[in-house]
Amino acid sequence: MFPAEAAMEVSVIGGYLGVGKTTLVNHILRNASERIAVLVNDFGDINIDKELIDASDDSTISLTNGCICCSLVDGFAAALEAVAAFRPPPSRLVIEASGVADPGAVAAYGHAPGLVLDAVIVVADAARLREQVTDPLVGQTVVSQLTAADVIVLNKSDLVDDLETTREQVCELNPDALLIQASHSEVSLDLLFGREVRKAQLSNSHIGEFESRTHKSDHPLSRNALETLINELPKNIQRVKGIVRLTESPQVPMVFQLVGRKWELRALADRSNSPEGNQLVAIGPKGSVPTDWDRTLRSEN
User: Which is nearest to 96 in space by CA: 118, 114, 116, 122?
Assistant: First the structure.
């Protein structure tokens, strides 16, 4: 969609024990179309297909699709240093937090030099969530993890009869997060990472089909127009991501990102690699992104 930042995007995957975090990591590694580095606590939990493994040692597994899996056995600092040394560098770093960790605290690593935090993804067990939230021993941990999330993957949804009640409970705990239902942790990576849906890709029906539409314009946008767009977005548009230039500071390219109902603007890390004008992509379930989703922005150009 637009030239990548020099900084590596960071996605943190959290969630309580047994919810399907490692299964999601496996899914990401099998289906990645970009060069990804994954930090995990234990290689023994990662069931990587043998035909994907190109080489391995005690601390790193290199895959044939360009992805790398690194162990956290020596700590975050050593693992991050190893990832920074890879050539060519990965475009994304995925960190799997332990089942009892605070993913919000782990996300602090996403602000280290050379990194930029994309989203905190928390996996929840739809079949056990109501029981876990009220459990006096684990309830506080589970609730804290959910409230720290930008994206909540409500996993094992196929095992729940009254899924709507569980959805309502999650929305009460974190009404702004993007909520994705899943079985076996199978989630569209286009939606998970906010990238443009590739037209040539045939989505698997069991993980849902998504579509994306882009906005491109030449002249700086007013912040008011951008906020109006956010307020008027159809609710099924679940992610918007890209580069904009605002009339207040047209010389500074800004990264815009909306996940669920949360959004942010930040200065592009590498201005020398920035595109001209504005480039945004909106992502949602197939048929949910109207052709005029960006009419507020187009009226300014």
Answer: 122
Beta carbons within 10 angstroms of residue 299's beta carbon: 9
CA distance 67 to 258: 26
CATH 3.40.50.1460 fits 8-193, yes or no: no
Confirm if 182 and 166 have CB atoms less than 8 A apart.
no
DSSP-based three-state secondary structure for 204: coil
How large is the greatest C-alpha to C-alpha distance in the chain, in angstroms?
Answer: 56
Provide the sign of the torsion angle of the four alpha carbons 255, 193, 89, 115, taken in this order. positive
The string of pLDDT tens digits covering residues 234-249 is: 888 989 999 999 999 9
pLDDT for the residue numbered 206 = 42
Beta partners for residue 165, in sequence order = none
Alpha helices in 203-271 (DSSP H): 223-232
- Within the chain, which residue ranges are assigned CATH 3.40.50.300? 8-193
How is residue 246 annotated by DSSP?
Answer: B
Q: Which two tokens stand for residue 150?
A: 């930008």
Q: Which residues, other chains included, contact 14 with Cβ-Cβ below 8 Å and sequence gap of 6+? A: 21, 97, 101, 102, 103, 106, 120, 121, 122, 123, 145, 148, 149
Residue 259 has pLDDT above 60, yes or no: yes
Q: How far apart are CA 1 and CA 214, in angstroms?
A: 8
Condensed to tens digits (0 to 9), the pLDDT of residues 80-96 reads 888 888 888 899 999 99
Query: Measured between alpha carbons, how far is 104 from 74 in angstroms, rounded to an integer?
Result: 21
pTM: 0.88
CA-atom Rg of the chain in angstroms: 19
**In this structure, how many other beta carbons lie within 10 angstroms of the beta carbon of residue 249?**
11
Q: Which CATH number fits domain 209-298: 3.80.10.10, 3.40.50.1370, 3.30.530.20, 3.30.1220.10?
A: 3.30.1220.10
